[in-house]
Amino acid sequence: MRRINQQENQKQKTSLIPKVISIGFFGGLIWSAIAAISGYFNFTTITPKSFILRSWIQTDWSDQWLGQIISILIISLLSIGIAFLYYVLLKKYDGVLPGLLAGIVLWFILFWIMEPIFPNIPDFYRLESDTIVTTICLFILYSVFISYSISFAYLQHLHEK
């Protein structure tokens, strides 16, 4: 009986922080890998290495597969911060719409507002239409993955209590 009470207390004390960390990491890992594959098949000219490494490091290795893998891992770590931001601001909203809107906002921030700090990324009006459509879709899918997963984990956590 005492062991059951300890397990129930343990369940009540668990937080969503480990889930948010894993959702953010794997969301970044999965969707930046898909972005790299999209670049390989020429759906987009902008890949993870375009943002992370090639904007500041112009060496041979950063333009090859090693640069792509390192960039994917860095994006996965940065994605944890985005997942926490979503958890703090939008965890109570479920459905696809919050993720869709968050993806568009995230794309807008990276491609319009933060564009000057990425010298390797062309200006918006110089991007090909395939690149624009592909990157917007990838950002939306990434954000919907993060938002839906965090909202589901949050609602599940509420039902456990």
TrEMBL record:
UniProt keyword Transmembrane present: yes
Keyword flag Transmembrane: yes
Keywords noted in UniProt: Membrane, Transmembrane, Transmembrane helix
Pfam families with a match to the protein in the record: YqhR
Database matches in InterPro entries: YqhR
Residues annotated as transmembrane: 20-41, 65-89, 96-113, 133-155
Protein name in the entry: Conserved membrane protein YqhR
